[in-house]
Design a protein that fits this description.
heterodimer; A: alpha/beta; 21-stranded mixed β-sheet; two-stranded parallel sheet; disordered C terminus; B: 187 residues; 5-stranded mixed β-sheet; two-stranded antiparallel ribbon; disordered N terminus; repressor (chain B); Auxin-responsive protein (chain B); AUX/IAA_dom (chain B); AUX_IAA (chain B); transcription (chain B)
Chain lengths: 585, 187
Amino acid sequence: MDRRFPFKVLEHIFSFLDVNEDRNSVSMVCKSWFETERRTRKRVFVGNCYAVSPLKVARRFPKMRSLTLKGKPHFADYNLVPDGWGGYAWPWIEAMAARRPLLEEIRLKRMVVTDECLEKIAASFRDFKSLVLTSCEGFSTDGIAAVASTCRKLRDLELRECIVDDLGGDWLTYFPETSTSLASLDFSCLDSEVKLSDLERLLSRSPNLKSLKLNRSVTLDVLASLLRRAPQLVELGTGSFSDELDPEEISKLTKALSELKQLKSLSGLWDLLPEYIPVLYSVCPRLTSLNLSYATVQMPDLIDLLSRCSKLQKLWVMDLIEDKGLKTVALCCKELRELRVFPSGADLDETDVTLTEQGLVSVSEGCQKLESVLYFCVQFTNAALVSIAKNRPNFRCFRLCVMEPFAPDYRTQQPLDEGFKAIVERCKDLRRLSVSGLLTDKAFEYIGVHAKKLRMLSIAFAGDSDLMLHHLLSGCERLKKLEIRDCPFGDTALLENAAKLETMRSLWMSSCFVSFGACKQLSQKMPRLNVEVIDEHPPKTRPDSSPVERIYIYRTVAGPRQDTPEFVWTIHKNPEVGVSRLSIR
Amino acid sequence: MENVGVCDEFVNLKATELRLGLPGTEDEKQKVSCGKSNKRALPETEKDIESTGKTETASPPKAQIVGWPPVRSYRKNSIQTKKNEAEGQGMYVKVSMDGAPYLRKIDLTMYKQYPELMKSLENMFKFSVGEYFEREGYKGSDFVPTYEDKDGDWMLVGDVPWEMFVSSCKRLRIMKGSEAKGLGCGV
């Protein structure tokens, strides 16, 4: 083998492999392919930071230039994971700093990042270019300042929906006057004000800046001035869009926006007032991405705006758009690929808009390229789901959140089993699915039988019994992530399908009927899984029959983690308890 | 429901106070006995209490599920601050209609008189309210608009002067069918 394909040739061939899945496959062919691949991989992705040790990753990929890590389970987004659970970036930063000083990019999602981490990044990687933190927490603006001031070649600094200890807007002044490399800046999640003059100067000396996302504190009256200094922007996230402007200011803003000839993506638009919508008209025809999910604008105004966005591919909006607005989208936005409709009232009984299943049906009819949906709605019908499936067999991501738990088809009072059956039967490429509403075990039988390409599945308040879990774990061949809350299954399906869990990244279950004894058994049976029982108020004594609040199970080659808090139990914490109980039996 | 009794005592004290001007045109705290006597004889049957009870208890459990609906706290917080700012002005009351799957909220200060309000409700819920007759209530429709006042009593919309209605209305309910008949028919 080696004689036919010298290392250099293999290396060259592998350099064309971008997708890590392909690289993973390639690395399993034989030892020399493994070696060649690992020496050439530049972008490393670790989907669960506890699945493998930082040291191993650092050693395996000597040419690593980019590292992406994910920490907490997805349901942490909805406050289902207690604070202090874990997901610390430090061990990774430390390991990379010591062994991979040429690292240029770090992307972290749902991790705890401290100022020490950020300072370490700034101090350790001389060519550091790109820091993207999504849904992270644990750091302050001091850490950001350290990165801004020290990383001379910084190109991207993006804080996406992070929880930051905001000590003031000074961090912006830490970008050296000589740095001109900035291409992307996102500080939309910060609270405090930055000084206009600092921002203007930064923009003036950043000719490569393509993406700028301001925070809410940046007022509308300064926007024109900022945009004039960055006419090359491709992505713009505005600040607040609600201050009172006089006619001259409005005209200046309109002009400044119309000068953004490359603008493709628009977001921010906090508190967007209807009278300012015409100001946006000039950018609409070019937009491919529009995020109106923070703009509490009513349907007629939304129609005004969206009817001009014929090139739109991605639309995020609130349910204020109503069915009528979505009908307009169906008519005008023929390029639409992704739609997300968020609830405007945080509580169920504050839903005071006419958004029904019909809205999604209209869009599925009119937008032939639609492949990704997130839709919050109070109730739904099977007929609508069947229509949607018939119209759009090309769905890759279908997430429906019927906000009323256990809500049946409101016309027939039947469970939504048949509706979701249509979805999984017709949408053969479905990778991600979230189900809701009243569902019996049958729904999950259909999913198990048909959803062969499904990677991620989210379930809440559904099913009747263990069969539900059994169908999923024995049917969905490609399942990687399964997250379940408030479903009535117990131990049997979990233990019977234990082997399946090693083929998945992770399984999350909360408020189900899994017993502590089953968790212990599973831990004993599957040493390459970490089985974590997360009980916020752990009892002193835990009988085997007691149900646990939450379980998080994930495969790992790193063994037990060393940083579990008190409320996380794993068998490694007190193995003698597990062993002795079993021996008594 | 027990609270209603307590309120009654306070209300009666206020009722003996001599004041000038129509009720509702001044302080919201004003509550005059003539308002009470205009109330139609509500069928204070258990059925009625039960139905209002249902509306009472149906809402709280939904709002208290942790992490539901699955909206990121970041997004929830953004919307919440917006709402708190907005609700500083206006008099928002919830409106429900029997049989409709969702509640709505309206700002009473947006309307000047009953016809405007009724038209808005008719548009919102796609129904017709028929004609209002002073003694006989609403005729020509199965739907009857009612509201809960500060005493906790369910009144027919239109029975009291507009200003008094705006100051005393806590929430609206568009009743349907037989329950409605009890209110809709004359005294």
